[in-house]
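User: Run a structure prediction on this.
Assistant: Running it now.
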Amino acid sequence: MNTNKKFILLCGMALLAMLPVQAQKVTKDYQRPSLHMVLLTTDEPSAPEEFMEHVSASWQTYMLPAMFNEFEIPFKEAKAGNPKGSMMQLITEYGSRLGSLSIDELKSLSENLSGKKYNEELKQYVDGLSNEIAHQLIAKWWGLQEDGAYSDELIFKLACYGATQNQANAAGQTNIGAQRELYNELMEPTMANTYVAFSKLNFYQNEPIARFAKDVAVTLAGLTAAAAGPMGAAGLMAAEKAAEAVYEKTKDGFSAYTTTLLYKLKWNEEEAEKFFACFDGQKLDMQKFNATPFELEYMGVNKCSTVVLANKDNLDAKSMVEKAMHKNIHKQLVLLQNNYEEFKPMMPIMDVVDKVMLVDMGTKESITEKDVFDVYEPYVNEKGILKYKKVGVTKPIKGGIWDNEDIDNALNADNNENALQGTQFKAVKNANNGMLVKKQKAKK
């Protein structure tokens, strides 16, 4: 029995009771990503110590951008041991003996400064969490109880979620049978659009790192010049000058570093068959479910940093760290969206006044005046299904980007008392607040 038929058999009566006679039509063309975020903590050396207590604390106050479904499960934090290749670990281990290393060892060390070994170590640890977290995600989707009772309410709600943030736009009328069939089609892509981001946060003083990177570069250049004989002197002088210039440019202030590994719930017809095979009558056999392997698929890793000048904003240590880490996490999510098209959601136009479109995104989504967005208009096709067609291209208006760093976007759309807030975009022809914008893929 295929997945859709089995699902109908299991859920038929429950679904009939849930659905209204006049229901919103839905489409597989747009599904907003569901995202859960996990904080990775480690025993790696860190500096400066007086800031580190605020790093993990900043995670607790981070508000997920409204472009994602916040998909929270119990697994929120993981201890990732003491990964090799961290910035301070490399400085501690090699700082006093660079002169004794070979050319090959120095090349490997220089490569590891970019985080290659560190990323591999973190991935190896997170891979070991895959089965446990995948089970929790599936259990959340199906509202599983300890006795095997379930509810498909969450899947239905998010599968039928239109492109707007807080309301579903009706796209005509349909009968219950047709709606149920559409829902079955949407179940798989909705669950498959579930992501988990594992983030390791660090906050470093720049000078020790900049000095170490300079010393590695100069030492490597010296060995290379020695191997080249008399002809290597000019190359060594140029390398030393370049290394000093980089050091001067990067030595001031502090840096917030975030390493984020992105995983996606593996969910397709085969995985669904494994899940449905765990049913015993109208309930799930929890023992069988827990023994069935499910997994996360590794998408990739990003690492980015944000330079902080301690006295620029006149903030105390806690506020400085929190602001920097939040900004850095925002940057990470944007990088992931640029790298993975399916992770990039569309955002609603909330209002159109004169020739300006107001969109529910801002600095928290790390948009800039250089970003280019496609504009989509929803329409109902000949089968009565909601689709989206591109109707234009737009950019943020200079000076019109909304500072929403500390604002819960969800409250913005639900607030009927105050004026709507958002970033101002140049309006396309016939713009209206039923349209959406989606950032174009970054050019490499």
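The chain has a mean pLDDT of 81.
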